[in-house]
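Field: sequence (string)
Field: structure_tokens (string)

Example rows 1 and 2, in order.
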Amino acid sequence: MSLAKELDATQDTQEDVIFPPGDLYSDEPPLETELHLEQIILLLKCLEWLWRDRTDFYAAGNLTIYYSWKKLKTESFRGPDFFVVLNTERKTRKSWVVWEEDGNYPNFILEILSESTASTDKELKKKIYQDTFRTPDYFWFDPYTLEFAGFHLVDCQYQPLEPNQQGHLWSQQLGLYLGIEQGLLRLFTPTGKLVPTPEETADKLAAKLRELNIDPETI
């Protein structure tokens, strides 16, 4: 088929497409284990607590990203285990619909490996995130074997990240380190301090008050 005919055929196909609204629900399957869920919730709570005063990001877990150039829900979609989009409005969404988000893709993606998904996460998804999403930071973590790796996009190709002395990997997009702490993947500040959950922050404050002979229950 000639180029002109191919273009005509494409145009005819596009004219027949009925664009659905961008308000699409996530269509992700249940998480494989409770540990997968615990890991996602932990990262989400820590990041949202650390960035509690910011309104320019969106973070989610096990949520569908729709990115079909034809704006169809039935094709071209993926559901990263955890992802962060920067320079966007912080609000509740049913899914991430690229064509309704000014064409923005995640800046950071983490996949949590399992026996059934590891090969897909390391090969197919990695290629999609590199070539289509152009996501700058891609990480994966296995909560059972503790396999942990990270990549940064350089000249359109993912390059593996080198760990620091603590074994942590730097996320340029988040401005934070990621590292394993007590069997779970945690976030760390540029100076190496653990990013706490709200509960951990409260516990630390309560302990400090007790050191000062103040009962936190009376405050």
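Row 2 begins here:
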Amino acid sequence: MEYEIEGTESVSTAVVRAVSAVDGRKSVDLPPLARVLNPEALDALFDSHADGRPRTGGRLSFIYSFCRVTVDNGEFLTIEPLENHPRAASDRAAGCTD
């Protein structure tokens, strides 16, 4: 799944929202993002410079709630469910290949 981060949305909030959509669970039912990484540090990594200039480039990938999350330039997310995710295993058993 591709997800475009809105201008007013923090990267950490976008990660939780996007993973929630992919995983089919409410955001509050996901494990805290802080168990994987520091949300404030994630936001700071892609925030503008102190003088207001936007940061350019940068990519970070990590695993969160059975998904590989890739943040590109603090503007886009790619969310890929892991093969060993329980839902992926049940979908394969049911013949679903989406």
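free_text_note (row 2): The longest strand covers residues 59-64.
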